[in-house]
Every structure is written in structure tokens, then in C-alpha cells.
């Protein structure tokens, strides 16, 4: 999972055109540079859950640099868009994955931008977006509330086209397959 903030924490993505252009940029590089699992575009920062197919640094260069280039060209902006760098967290297991999915989806709700995550138009919680499948190699729940040590997941692998479950968009169906024993998504 990566997080990056706008320069000076300005609310650039509060504007519809900026947020939509960022999402369009995110989807432009999907498949060639990374697999896209979840995202949210907040007014002054982004959270993206992805699996790089190259390096994480290269994926972020395409996302941030690609957006900056397009903002200048398509929105006529000459201002600095991003703070330098980004923060990242490598997903350890299914529980960690579900925790970050929930965090991303609920971020607009926690910030009072909407009442339900599905209402926020700049997020993968919206039913209108296509996502890549849950990454293979995540360790399953061992028992309620106990998760195993981190496993070296195939971090830079691409989807297995011979596996029909792997080629389907993720979204709610994939998350539902990863529900805990109580039927609730882990938070």
C-alpha cells in the first residue's frame, strides 16, 4: 500500500477534474506497471493498494510523474503537485490485506466526505470501477485474530491466465471470498 500527499497538503483533488484525471492516470498504467487492488483519492492525498509488475519506485514514478505531466498539459497547471517521496507498507498476509482494504474504503467516511464508502466517487469502493484480483500468495487466516508470520509473496508476479479466478475483477466478490469466520470483512 502506498500513500502520497499533495505539495503543502493542498486540496487539489477536491476539484472533480483533478480527481478524475488522477483516476484516469491510475488506470492508464494499470496492467503494464502494476496491478490495482484498491484506491482512494482524498482531497490532499492518495492511498493505493497495488502489486508492482516492475519496481515500486517505477510504479510511483509513473503514477505521480504521469499525473503531474497530464495536469500541466490537460489542466494548464504549472504548480508543484506532489510532496517528495511516498510512504509504503508491504502487505504481509490476508488479515493485513483486508485491514488496508477497509482503511482505504473507509477513509472518506472517517473524514466526513460521505456517509457510506460506496457513495464516494473517487474510490474503488464505488461499484463503477474494475480492480485486479486479490494478490496470490497471501497467507490465509490461521484462526480468529491470529495471523502467521510474513510470507514472501510473489510481489512482482503477474496474474495466471490459466486460473479463471485470477482473471476476474476483484471488488466485492474477491473481498467476500476473504471474509473471516463471522462473515464480516476484517477491519
Chain-wise SSE layout:
Elements: E1 2-5, H1 16-29, E2 34-41, E3 45-52, H2 56-75, E4 87-88, H3 94-110, H4 164-167, H5 171-177
Antiparallel strand pairs: 1-3, 1-4, 2-3
What's the gist of this structure?
The protein is α+β, with helices and mostly antiparallel strands and 187 residues long.
Strand fraction band?
Answer: 5-15%
* Quantity of strands, as a count: 4
- Any idea how many domains? 1
Radius of gyration: 16 Å
Q: What share of the residues lie within helices?
A: 25-40%
- CATH fold label: Alpha-Beta Plaits
CATH class: Alpha Beta
Mean pLDDT: 81
**Estimated structural class:** alpha+beta
Which residues form runs of ≥5 with pLDDT under 50?
Answer: 141-187
Q: What is the level-2 CATH architecture name?
A: 2-Layer Sandwich
**Shape, please?**
globular
CATH homologous superfamily label: Transposase IS200-like
Describe what this molecule looks like in 3D.
The protein is of the alpha+beta class. It has one domain (2-177): Transposase IS200-like (Alpha-Beta Plaits), CATH 3.30.70. The chain has helices at residues 16-29, 56-75, 94-110, 164-167, 171-177, and strands at residues 2-5, 34-41, 45-52, 87-88. Strands 2-3-1-4 form a 4-stranded antiparallel beta sheet, sandwiched between helices. A hairpin with a 3-residue loop joins strand 2 (34-41) and strand 3 (45-52). Helix 1 (16-29) crosses helix 2. The protein is globular and about 45 Å long. Residues 141-187 have low confidence and may be disordered.
Amino acid at each position: 500500500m502506498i500513500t502520497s500527499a499533495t505539495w503543502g497538503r493542498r486540496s487539489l483533488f477536491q476539484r472533480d477534474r483533478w480527481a478524475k484525471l488522477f483516476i484516469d492516470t491510475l488506470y492508464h498504467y494499470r496492467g503494464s506497471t502494476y496491478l490495482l487492488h484498491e484506491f482512494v483519492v482524498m482531497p490532499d492525498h492518495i492511498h493505493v493498494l497495488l502489486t508492482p509488475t516492475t519496481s515500486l519506485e517505477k510504479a510511483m514514478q509513473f503514477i505521480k510523474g504521469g499525473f503531474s505531466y497530464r495536469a500541466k498539459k490537460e489542466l494548464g497547471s504549472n504548480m508543484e503537485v506532489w510532496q517528495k517521496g511516498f510512504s509504503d507498507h508491504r502487505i504481509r498476509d490476508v488479515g493485513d490485506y483486508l485491514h488496508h482494504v477497509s482503511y482505504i474504503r473507509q477513509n472518506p467516511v472517517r473524514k466526513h466526505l460521505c456517509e457510506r464508502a460506496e457513495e464516494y466517487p473517487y474510490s474503488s469502493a464505488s461499484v463503477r470501477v474494475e480492480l485486479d484480483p486479490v494478490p496470490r500468495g497471501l497467507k490465509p487466516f490461521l484462526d480468529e485474530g491470529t495471523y502467521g508470520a510474513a510470507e514472501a509473496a510473489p510481489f512482482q508476479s503477474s496474474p495466471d491466465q490459466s486460473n479463471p479466478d485470477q482473471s476476474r475483477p476483484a471488488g466485492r466478490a474477491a473481498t467476500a471470498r476473504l471474509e473471516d469466520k463471522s462473515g464480516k470483512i476484517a477491519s
